[in-house]
């Protein structure tokens, strides 16, 4: 676990202003080793998600998961589109992220349930980057089938699917196949005052 800039990230990511290297080290590779992960290895990721902020501290996120060795794996794997199945077969865990659309405290709609679930996802992803794991979120899966096959209650909204795994021991063997991407310049995402036409 290191907070230094990862060598595989350094050539591709150059922030406009100094920020913590953990944010730059987080990216979404697809190549994984295929190794299993113990609970001691993967539960800290969900512990990090547990501490994410949320409206009224409602914590609307729920994570459903399947380990590669479990009988649930095929159910989760079959939700993925073929292009994602090609690489996600080497994941140690497949995860479906859902969020509760109404507050438990009063039954009223939660406008920010997806926003809050996104904060939980980012907390998980940053903890994964800190541990040098592969954490890859996807929309390339069957949302309707996931609701049915995973018995997801009607009050839960399906947000995304995650593949979690370990990086291959020798990353230099696969470095030419994928690399971190960059970002839009800050002046394209930051607007002072209202939108202008």
Mean pLDDT: 94
Percent helix:
25-40%
Major β-sheet, in short?
Answer: 4 strands, antiparallel
Low-confidence stretches: none
| Rg, alpha carbons | 18 Å
Strand content: 15-25%
- Please give the count of helices: 6
The secondary-structure class comes to alpha+beta
Helix/strand order, N-terminal first: HHEHHEHEHE
Shape: globular
| Spatial order of the strands forming the largest sheet | 1-2-4-3
Number of strands: 4
Calculate the terminal CA-CA distance, rounded to whole Å.
46 Å
Describe the structure concisely for a colleague.
By secondary structure, the chain is α+β, with helices and mostly antiparallel strands. The chain is built from 6 helices and 4 strands; from the N terminus they run ααβααβαβαβ.
How does this structure look, described?
- A 4-stranded antiparallel β-sheet has the order 1-2-4-3, with helices on both faces.
- The chain contains 6 helices and 4 strands; from the N terminus they run ααβααβαβαβ.
- By secondary structure, the chain is of the alpha+beta class.
- 27% of the residues lie in helices and 16% in strands.
Write the layout of secondary structure elements.
Elements: H1 21-25, H2 39-50, E1 61-67, H3 73-77, H4 82-88, E2 93-100, H5 113-130, E3 133-138, H6 143-149, E4 156-166
Antiparallel strand pairs: 1-2, 2-4, 3-4
Helix pairs in contact: 2-5
């Amino acid at each position: 676990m290191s907070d230094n800039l990862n060598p595989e990230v350094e050539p591709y990511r150059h922030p406009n202003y100094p920020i913590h290297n953990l944010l730059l080290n987080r990216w979404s590779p697809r190549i994984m080793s295929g190794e299993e992960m113990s609970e001691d290895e993967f539960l800290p990721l969900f512990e990090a998600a547990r501490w994410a902020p949320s409206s009224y501290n409602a914590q609307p996120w729920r994570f459903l998961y399947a380990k590669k060795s479990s009988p649930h794996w095929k159910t989760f794997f079959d939700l993925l589109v073929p292009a994602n199945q090609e690489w996600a077969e080497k994941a140690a865990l497949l995860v479906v992220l859902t969020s509760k659309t109404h507050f438990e405290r009063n039954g009223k709609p939660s406008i920010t349930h997806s926003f809050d679930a996104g904060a939980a996802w980012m907390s998980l992803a940053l903890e994964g980057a800190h541990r040098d794991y592969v954490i890859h979120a996807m929309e390339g899966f069957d949302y309707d089938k996931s609701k049915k096959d995973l018995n997801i209650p009607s009050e839960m909204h399906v947000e995304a699917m995650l593949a979690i795994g370990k990086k291959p021991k020798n990353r230099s063997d696969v470095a030419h196949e994928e690399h971190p991407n960059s970002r839009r310049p800050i002046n394209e995402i930051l607007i002072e005052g209202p939108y202008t036409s």
